[in-house]
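User: Design a sequence. Structure:
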């Protein structure tokens, strides 16, 4: 991502990112287009070929059976199951509270003109559950649980054939109706077009690698997608009250996701900037995931020093970070002045890690500055707000004359006739 920092007065970098997480994306468009074409034309046969090629998996059947679900559940150690169910309960409770704010509507803005909308759950959605470097047990929770809360009739989950068995258990506990061992672009294609065994869905949600992301981009239109997800991001806004050790720990926690994770500190305190830079290097020395986190910090890490709070806010809103933590003296006051972010973590006790795992807010969030125009995955992702209207004769008298006049001005005679016809018939019945 290009950051024209020179456009922001009063902002200097103590550490600049060495590379761009966006421009470093592998050129995968052609490969993905071929995968999509093949799956559309050959269905399961193409999925099987690509599973062998990309995942070294030769499966007789793609769908996880009820017996296999139960076996995965039985193999899940009791504490992991309890923790997963804790996360499910919290995500469900928050999604239910969100859904309660999305209400149907009926109004009569003009006499006899009735309008409204319904909140309609989608019929079938596809949840892509990434395998990743680690068994991310929270991943299915975040995509499947809100869908079931929203009232989606059927949730199809796809996860790579080599995903940890605990991921199957997580999909099952979260409420997936059907689970398939299909990963990568071929999974997106199967859900988008449908195959002999995988049903076509109405919308695909969930993050994945560059191939998954590109596949979602290419199938968008006939089906919906939640968003295009890039590498993970975390930025921390801090003043002189910031704790360098804690800030470094939070940044490295996110950096261990991927070597392209974008991590940064934006601060008004130069001493904190220096201390955090040293603290990151110190913590990397004994971090077991330092190979990944260190590469992310080296290539995409950033520390920006701002001359005042206004400059800090302006630069943060430009970055529009996926995860944005606030470690300042008046964290809630600063939070109210911010506009662009994926999810906000107010005060030093609110770590991104809690949201990543189990606290209840969703961890599927906009990256690559998409926080400037959208929020993250939520229960509203799975419903449609569909409007309706109905009119009485008095309502037709209100809207037909201006509608007919406007249509005539635009030269749309068919529109004029349709608008006028109802008014003429109402008037004729009364004569």
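Assistant: Done.
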């Amino acid at each position: 991502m290009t950051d024209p920092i020179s456009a922001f007065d009063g902002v200097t970098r103590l550490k600049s990112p060495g590379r761009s997480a966006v421009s470093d994306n592998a050129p995968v468009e052609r490969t993905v287009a071929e995968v999509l074409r093949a799956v559309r034309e050959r269905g399961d046969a193409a999925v099987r070929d690509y599973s062998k090629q990309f995942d070294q998996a030769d499966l007789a059947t793609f769908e996880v059976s009820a017996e296999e679900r139960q076996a995965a559940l039985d193999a899940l150690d009791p504490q992991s199951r309890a923790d997963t169910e804790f996360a499910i309960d919290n995500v469900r409770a928050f999604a239910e509270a969100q859904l309660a704010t999305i209400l149907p509507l009926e109004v009569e803005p003009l006499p006899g003109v009735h309008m409204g909308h319904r909140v309609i759950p989608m019929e079938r959605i596809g949840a892509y559950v990434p395998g990743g470097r680690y068994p991310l047990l929270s991943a299915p929770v975040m995509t499947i649980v809100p869908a079931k809360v929203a009232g989606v009739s059927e949730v199809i989950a796809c996860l790579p054939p080599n995903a940890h068995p605990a991921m199957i258990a997580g999909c099952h506990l979260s409420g997936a109706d059907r689970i398939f061992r299909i990963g990568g672009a071929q999974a997106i294609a199967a859900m988008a077009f449908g195959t002999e065994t995988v049903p076509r869905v109405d919308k695909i949600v969930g993050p994945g690698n560059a191939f998954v992301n590109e596949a979602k981009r290419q199938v968008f239109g006939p089906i919906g997608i939640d968003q295009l997800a890039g590498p993970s991001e975390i930025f921390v806004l801090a003043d002189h009250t910031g704790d360098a050790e804690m800030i470094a720990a939070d940044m490295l926690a996110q950096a261990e996701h991927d070597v392209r994770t974008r991590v940064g500190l934006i601060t008004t305190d130069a001493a904190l900037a220096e201390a955090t830079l040293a603290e990151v290097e110190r913590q990397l020395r004994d971090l077991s995931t330092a190979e990944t986190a260190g590469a992310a910090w080296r290539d995409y890490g950033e520390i920006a020093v701002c001359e005042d709070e206004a400059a800090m806010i302006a630069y943060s809103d430009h970055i529009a970070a996926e995860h944005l933590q606030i470690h300042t003296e008046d964290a809630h006051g600063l939070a109210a002045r911010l506009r662009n972010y994926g999810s906000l973590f107010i005060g030093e006790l609110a770590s991104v890690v809690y949201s990543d795992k189990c606290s209840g807010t969703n961890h599927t969030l906009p990256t690559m500055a998409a926080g400037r125009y959208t929020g993250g995955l939520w229960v509203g992702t799975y419903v449609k707000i569909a409007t309706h209207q109905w009119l009485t004769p008095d309502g037709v008298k209100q809207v037909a004359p201006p509608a007919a006049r406007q249509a005539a001005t635009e030269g749309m005679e068919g529109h004029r006739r349709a608008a006028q016809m109802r008014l003429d018939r109402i008037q004729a019945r009364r004569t």
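Residues 78-99 form the longest helix (22 residues). The first strand starts at residue 11 and ends at 15.
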